[in-house]
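Escalated from tier 1: zinc ion holo job.
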Amino acid sequence: MKKIIPFVIYLVLPFLVYPQGKIHTPKYCLFYDNHTMPAIPDVGENFDVEAFTDRIKACGVDYLTFHARCNLGMAYYDTKIGIKHPSLKYDLFGQLADACNRKGIALTAYLNGGISSAEGLKHREWTTLYFDGREYREPRFTPYVRTMCYNTAYRDHLIAMVEEIARNYPVSGFFIDCLQNFPCVCPVCVKEMKEKGIDWNNLNEVTKFSEFSALRLAEDIYKAATKINPNLLIYHNNPGYEEQSKFSTYFEVECLPAGAWGYEYLPVLSHYLRTLGDYPVLNMTGRFYDWGDFGGLRPGEAIKSELLYGLANGMRP
Ligand SMILES: [Zn+2]
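Tier 2 regenerated the structure:
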């Protein structure tokens, strides 16, 4: 009997710790890229979680990516670590997670890894520092004006938010956006570059170091999240696909042809990703000419053409 009890605990424990039974295979996906200024006075006030999830379920959506923390640094869930949007009066992400869980929709938490304006304002030592000593970047009228250093205490903060969400909500994955190689010569980065023999006066070398730092953070996010739930879909936007393939469990191809991506991006990426192994691959198309292009729609014919092309090449719409 003494031997049997620990054996039973050993069998049952994984099911208690890990809420998701198996990794979700996305079929029809929706991606919400919402970033809300702190001054907006009524965030979520008229958001009907049940009507919203009923509607997307009726559309056949089985996979939803929704912002848990946006690039303005605002959190949309009850966080003990981050900055909840000041006008949001309830746990929006939490209610959504509950409804999705009940209705069989896999929910992935969006967090912006490279930009977090409000957190950068609160912790100026977390932001990147450019060669001329500026914390601000150009152009200033975009969310890129304040970018985050992957080697400061910001990295622990971001990982802690991922852990907080993985523990407290029935999420199926994480989408970490904007892990771009922003060159940084802050004291933390310079110290490590000196130790590694990297010329921190050379833009190319500093940019390469930033790429290395972004990948290291991506790997640590993967390790922290999968320790809590080994069946998560995890993808980091911007680092190379091959480079992150050991610590991502699916790929998304952000491919917005009317923007900087162009129309040649989808054919090349759809073929290339087939060479990397058996990963679920999502084709994320949409309209994005530039920041602030709110509510714009693309012609149905264009969307159909891109989604069908992707589908024929193994990318889910
Ligand atoms: Zn730095």
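The pocket of zinc ion is lined by residues 128, 149, 151, 184, 186, 188-189 (CB under 6 Å).
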